[in-house]
Specification:
Keywords: Acyltransferase, Transferase. This is Acyltransferase. Its EC number is 2.3.1.-. By secondary structure, this protein is an alpha/beta fold. It has helices at 6-33, 232-238, and strands at 47-48, 53-54, 61-62, 67-69, 74-75, 80-83, 97-99, 104-105, 110-113, 117-119, 124-125, 130-132, 134-135, 151-152, 155-157, 162-163, 168-169, 174-175, 180-181, 186-187, 190-191, 195-198, 203-209, 213-215. The protein has a single domain (28-238), classed as Hexapeptide repeat proteins (UDP N-Acetylglucosamine Acyltransferase, domain 1, 3 Solenoid), CATH 2.160.10.10. It is 14% helix and 26% strand. A seven-stranded parallel beta sheet has the order 1-4-7-10-15-18-21, with no helix packed on it. The longest helix is centred in the first third of the chain and has 28 residues, at 6-33.
Length: 246
């Protein structure tokens, strides 16, 4: 009977052990590097509300003494939050960037402001959303655009709004409550409450009326919410059992 070669088995065990150790270390780094009110790290926000969390690694952050973050906010990895055009500026007494309670900023999003920028409560942003109060000007045709003094204008996003992946919000935009911006939309100007916008530049494609409902009508029925009082354990019992092929 031929001898069993133990070296490949030992090598596989070492690779598995190394992989497990790397992942444990990565989880520890992500947890230790997260920013909360209790563990602000190097940042000194004007306000960082209870139960809010900035995931590690953070994106570019500066001007945090002029940034307010409400309670129960989730700031994903690689999110940029900046107040002012450059680090180290004195921006005065007023808050520049204000996030309400329950705001979710998707991974790789950018919130960049040197004029007042307000995001209302319970706004949800997909990955890669870009919001700015400042844009390049091109008034002088003889000067490179990047060297011309930019224009700045306040931005406001109403509570309850949802901005899909890759949405861009330009200076001066005013979004009402519960606005939906479709993925890739470039939003400027005024958007009324309960409107859906899409395109570049974004245009209103659906609105809600108290009497008529959504116009044009929604193509799919509303999802059925989970009844109040249902526990996580009860939901698990409703899930199909993989052993049964479900």
């Amino acid at each position: 009977m031929p001898k069993q070669n133990v070296f490949p088995t030992l090598a596989r065990w070492r690779r598995r052990a190394a992989s497990a150790a790397v992942h444990r270390g990565a989880r520890w780094v992500r947890e230790a590097g997260a920013v909360t009110a209790e563990r602000p790290g190097p940042y000194r926000f004007r306000r960082l509300g209870r139960h809010s969390r900035l995931a590690f690694p953070q994106g570019t952050i500066f001007g945090e003494p002029w940034i307010e973050i409400g309670e129960h906010c989730v700031i994903a990895q690689d999110v940029t939050l900046t107040a002012g055009m450059l680090p180290g500026l004195d921006l005065g007494r007023e808050t520049i960037v204000r996030l309400g309670d329950g705001v979710v900023l998707g991974r790789g999003s950018h919130v960049i402001a040197d004029a007042p920028l307000t995001i209302g409560d319970d706004c949800f942003f997909g990955p890669g959303v870009y919001i700015t109060t400042t844009n390049h000007s091109y008034d002088d045709p003889d000067v490179p655009v990047g060297k011309q003094w930019p224009r700045s204008e306040a931005v406001e996003i109403g509570s309850g709004s949802w901005l899909g992946t890759g949405v861009v919000v330009l200076p001066g935009a005013r979004l009402g409550r519960n606005v939906v911006a479709a993925a890739g939309a470039v939003v400027r100007g005024e958007v009324p409450d309960h409107a859906v916008v899409a395109g570049a530049p974004a245009r209103i494609v659906r609105t809600w009326d108290r009497e008529a409902g959504w116009q044009p009508p929604l193509r799919t029925p509303a999802p059925v919410p989970v009844p109040e009082g249902v526990t996580a354990e009860q939901l698990k019992r409703l899930a199909p059992d993989p052993a049964d092929g479900g």
